[in-house]
Amino acid sequence: MHMRHSDEPHGPEIVPVRFILQDPRSLTGKDEAVIDLMAAKGESILELALENGINIEHACGGVVACSTCHIYVNKGMEHLPEADDAELDRVEEAPDLKINSRLSCQCIVEGDGPIEVEVPAWNRNAVKEVPH
Ligand code: FES
């Protein structure tokens, strides 16, 4: 599905975001498990990932209608907006739910960072295997 991008122009890419990939090969085709990127404020973690070749699943295109874009925010949660009710309802459906689980399409970079997120290994299978 096509990724929905926000219409607002993004600012300069000044916010450091580290991605930790539990299964890098399935997401990028490479073996690097730690990828450091710079985000622009106003951009979602999902957008940043996709623009940089980290193919996080996003079955609904970023409209909070799935839980396939589930990530863990290890550091910097305070630089992201709080999850709203729609996100909380959805993320509860994700496998391996943790206290720091978020939907990456809803994680809009707001603060100065740094932010560290972790992409679970099962991400690539989430669409085909109904998690329960
Ligand atoms: Fe569906 Fe994020 S892509 S909720």
**Biggest sheet: strand arrangement:** 2-1-5-3-4
Question: What overall form do the CA principal axes indicate?
Answer: globular
What is the number of beta strands?
Answer: 5
Radius of gyration: 13 Å
Order of helices and strands: EHEHEHEE
Derived from helix and strand composition plus strand pairing, the structural class reads alpha+beta
Share in helix: 10-25%
In this structure, how is the largest beta sheet organized?
A: 5 strands, mixed
Instruction: Tell me the β content.
Output: 15-25%
Mean pLDDT: 89
Poorly predicted ranges: 125-132
Description:
The protein is α+β, with helices and mostly antiparallel strands. Mean pLDDT is 89; it is low at 125-132. The protein has helices at 24-28, 45-51, 85-91, and strands at 13-21, 34-40, 70-75, 101-103, 115-119. The two termini are 23 Å apart. The longest helix is centred in the middle third of the chain and has 7 residues, at 45-51. Bound molecules: FE2/S2 (inorganic) cluster (FES).
Question: How do the strands and helices of this protein lay out in sequence?
Answer:
Blueprint: E1 13-21, H1 24-28, E2 34-40, H2 45-51, E3 70-75, H3 85-91, E4 101-103, E5 115-119
The structure holds FE2/S2 (inorganic) cluster.
